Amino acid sequence: MAQYEPQQPLTTPTAQEFGFPYTAYAIQEQLMQDIFQVLENGKVGIFESPTGTGKSLTLTCSALTWLARHEELVRSEILARIGEVKQELATLEEENQLARDWLETQGKSRIQREELQKLQHLQNLLDKQDQQLSGIRNRAKAYKKQKRQPLSKQVELENDRESTSDSDSDHETTDGPQETTEDRYRPVQIFFCSRTHSQLAQIVTELRKTPHGQSVRCISLGSRQQLCGNPQVRSLKQVGLMNERCLDMATKKPHPNPSKKSRLTEEVNSRCPLKITSLMESLRDLALSEPLDIEEMASEGAACGACSYYASRSALEQAQLILLPYQLIFQKSARSQLGINVKGSIVIIDEAHNLLESLSQLHGAEIKRQQLEKAKVEISCYKEYFQKRFSTKNLLKINQLIFIVRRLLKIVDPGEETKPNSSRMLRTYELTAEGDFFNIDLCELLDFCARTRLARKVQGHAAKMQRAPRPNENLPPVSSARSVILQRLANEQKQNDKSKHLKRKIEEVQDAREEQLEKHCPPSKLVLDLSPSPMKPLLSFLETLTSDAQDGRILLDPQGGILKYLLLDPAEQFSDIVSEARAIVIAGGTMHPTQELKEQLFSSCQGRLVERFYSHVVPNDAVLPFVVSNGPTGAPLCFKFSERATSQMLQELSMILQNLCQVIPGGMVCFLPSYEYLDKVYKHLEQSETLKSISRRKVVFKESSGSAEQLLEKYALAIKESGSGGALLLSVVGGKLSEGLNFTDDLGRAVLVVGLPYPNRNSPELQQKMKHLDEKLGPGSGNEFYENLCIKAVNQCIGRAVRHIKDYACVYLLDERFSSVRIRGKLPEWISRHIVQASAENGGFGAVQARTARFFKSR
Questions:
Q1: For residues 37 and 12, is the Cβ–Cβ distance under 8 A?
Q2: Which residue, among 691, 801, 700, 698, has the nearest Cα to 741 in the 3D structure?
Q3: How much is the pTM?
């Protein structure tokens, strides 16, 4: 695919030229211009724009303005350059007539002719693209006008090849994008990613308000869980099962004789009725002609009877703005499957305050003992069923996979001597050595599994056996001779103090015994099981073992029966995006502190980095933040884990809540370190009758670990009720209410953060991460990371209040440790510069309550 990079730079537009639908504030103007320059110069930009400043809309307008001007410049420059080269060729032809050095002039002419040929080829590709886009717009208009026909009248089934046989020749297809030999122009695309689909849906809503919404080709990508409209698939609920059923139905042949009843039910054996090419193309054209969020895309597919999932994938090639969640762009396998190519593209990462944690989570892997047991049975039965059809090479690969599964089962087996808390950390090569499969080429094995679609085939065979069980008969007895040998070797092992040589012999005999049992294992052993197939988790875990040993560790927990890969260094997983993308924009409302982000992800491109931090749009007097070091009785506030549950700290917190509820109107949100501590606080409020006192003024709500939607609705209704003094919401740092939710206006007139919510330092995962950072970045880096985890969580809580320019609120940081200069330096700049230090020396908590009352009376 061809692409052209203009030689002439773009000038930065004025604030009025970005298509911003409102009168932009100064920081919004500056942010749009800064992003435009980052995109034009191919930089990596880290931007912090406080929550409530229109960050997402500003990102969208600046990026789309740059894209429109870039595409216009490409076309004009190609046309201008074609004219210049033609003129230069004409001049060279005249010089050829008079030149003495004919070879030199012919060489210059040849270079010019080659350049002209390339430019004209690019122009032809652009013209062809324009024709295709014009056709898409015309078909979309016709589709909107026409009356949608019932699905039963639109029968257009493809005669896809059935993929149920297991011959070697059938092991070469995948579900990924089909390669095309057609040469086409590849424009710059913008990949806009965020954590959730609800956040991406807000982008679509804001996009429609701008002039860009009328012309941009925008597509929303998602998983089958969001886009699939087939009731059979959606009823499975779990994403793994949905993927497997969809892939199975998508490759089914239409029944050769629909009137003839099959032995299997139509529901199980039918091809997906939504994969109708003409309808999916119509849906694709509609999606490219007007911005649709993920729910609207699914609704349109359901209305016309087309598959929204595959329609959105087919629209990817022609889209300019692609909205997608983190997992679809950060995982190389997902990009490959969807056909996402970030080379020369723009990557915008919104809500990026937890980017490092998101990368580590997405590239981790976990496999449980139950999954390994099920995988062993499924693969073994699959091998025995189709053994005669396999080539020797393919059979070897399947045997290697079975061997690895057995070894992993031995490693994760707790045994009789396993002690509690016997978990340990291993490097990847230590696990393969301990499992004795270090000599197996895992990359080659995984390539075989991907190329042959082994996971799908094993799962499909297991499902088939579940639907058609066979009687468990004629199972040959295990050789008594083998049992005698096994017992004898076991006795010898005890006598020789567990000799390694004899231990290996015992394992060989045990493997042989297991193999004999599995060889005669009838398919009826596969009992009905609605859990997802363990094949993909197994292959995902094996893939992590091929990564650099320095980048991660394996947590082995025999007691829990878990093997878990922990990614410690996400740089390698993000390196493809850094090296291939034209420019990267990383934005969030609370990006502080950014040092570890730069060190871990962008150490190789420090010259491309641009950092910008912006103030809030609200006036300086709209936010009143306090650091409360002492409680109402004058006692120091220290909510460390060892002290926060003491009767003194619980009593101080109860009095603070009671006193503030008397002077704060509307809603108050109090964030506590954990659900366990929340329960203790609530119980103390009840026992001390403080809850009864607060309830006379405000309705009290308590967050639970379940759904937050109903709780928020009740909270909002209590505040809006006439004559109400508002409500108090007790929540948890890192819970569902601390990120992504807006406590606008009366919903959040005050935010309280109780203590510094440090994570559990005794966690094996956290200890290993801190140790890794100390080794890589120097002593103290682990502690810095540990503290930053805490401060980022605090910053997210603070950002829930003050959502627009007319909003106002108070913020209370309840712990003397917030007085530290180091801690305050990591808070958002628009908070830290206005902080009021409330200590015993300057009036204590009484001064806090008095100043709070004056703040709200002045509103």
A1: yes
A2: 801
A3: 0.84
